[in-house]
Amino acid sequence: MEVAEGGRQSRPPAGAFLLYSSLLINALFFAHYFLISPIRLGDDGGSCGLSWALKAAREAEAVPPRTAPATGRCPARAPIVIVIVIVMHSGNPMFLEPYWTRHAAASAVVVSGWHRLSYRTTDGLFQSVELENHIRRLHKSVGNAVVDDKHLVFGAGSTQLINALVHALSISSSPPDDDGSAPASVVATVPYYPPYKDQTGMFDGRKYRWDGTTDTWANATTHHSSTTKNKTDIIEFVTSPNNPDALLHRPVLAGSAAIVDHAYYWPHFTHIPAPADENVMLFTMTKLSGHAGSRLGWALIRDEKVAKRAYEYVQSNTMGASRDTQLRMLGIIKVMLANLHGEDDIFAFGHDVMRSRWRRLNAVVSRSRRISLQKIPPQYCKYFKRIREPSPAYAWVKCEREEDEDCYEALLKANIVTRSGVGNGASSRYTRVSLLKSDDDFDVLMERVTDLVNAERYDAPDD
């Protein structure tokens, strides 16, 4: 400030004071609006910038991962802990939750309320062409299926496609105008996945019926039984790796129309000896990425007419797979593709988890004379380019003691809920134990199995 004559200081111009005040007010407004309060919603829920997207993101991040075991435990704050049962009958793939927690940002999808309202995609189809292309890329990269000569059909999980394919194949095996022809026989090899039988019976189609196991038809052919029919009139379900025993299978009846379910034919569950190349193959995101609740499966079908019938079945049934699901699964597969053979490879992660669980379970059960597990040898895997140890999704448990005729009940007495082998067409001496659930669930399972095996010392008769 200049000093005026007589020693008095001169006042600043009024304009400068107003300028400084305006700059200060604007700076405060900017800091409050953009830095302190980034989310400012209008009456209609929207505003400038990314307000609604940020709000949606904050709500998504507030959702905690599921970590509690599926038991009857009281909360930790309770003074008394009561454990009723550990539920291990479900194929719920919660073991992959930690992987997706680590990839929360890359796998997240935010969809506005006005987006994807139409039944169809922008191409006028019920199936996303981009998702189809990424699924084909994934199969080629993993080397578990030949896709170039196949048509791809989406469904609400592979569960919906089970009957869609039976429908499509049963029509193709009978004359187009012959309503009096015998229905196609739907069969499977024991132990089989229960929905094959359940769905075939529930939908009760005129062109097909559940007709037992492959053993029945193989024996009929061997003995030239009068009940033998043309193999082209037989639809054979094959699960490889098998659910429940994790073994690789091929069609038993030569010439049958085979539906090969490859839900578990991925490197975290089994070795990949070669790309699968059957005429009709089933896959699902449930066991691939763990996203069971999103409900997306697909069939790879060589014959165009069969693929068209299966596609029309799905459109008539549900108007196609959910478009929101297709969008989300596209993002999930992109993350998987970006990390193949890297430090964050989902198949390496999944195999490490499942291999560790199988080792731990085997170590305990190997001491038992009461229960046993299926035998799975190490095998060379083309994806990992090495011998890999087994990492099955399920333990196929057999009760060896004569008095344990019902293995489900025997394990239930040990507070373990399983899935009886009777539903798989097998003996009641077998039961399926899921190894797919969370770490907490598996730890509780190991406690119960260890207690069951240790109890044998006290049950043994004195010498």
From TrEMBL:
The chain crosses the membrane at residues 17-35. Residues 88-452 form the Alliinase C-terminal domain. Belongs to the alliinase family. GO terms for molecular function: carbon-sulfur lyase activity; transaminase activity. It comes from Eleusine coracana subsp. coracana. Its cofactor is pyridoxal 5'-phosphate. The keyword Ion transport does not apply. This is Alliinase C-terminal domain-containing protein. It comes from the Eukaryota.
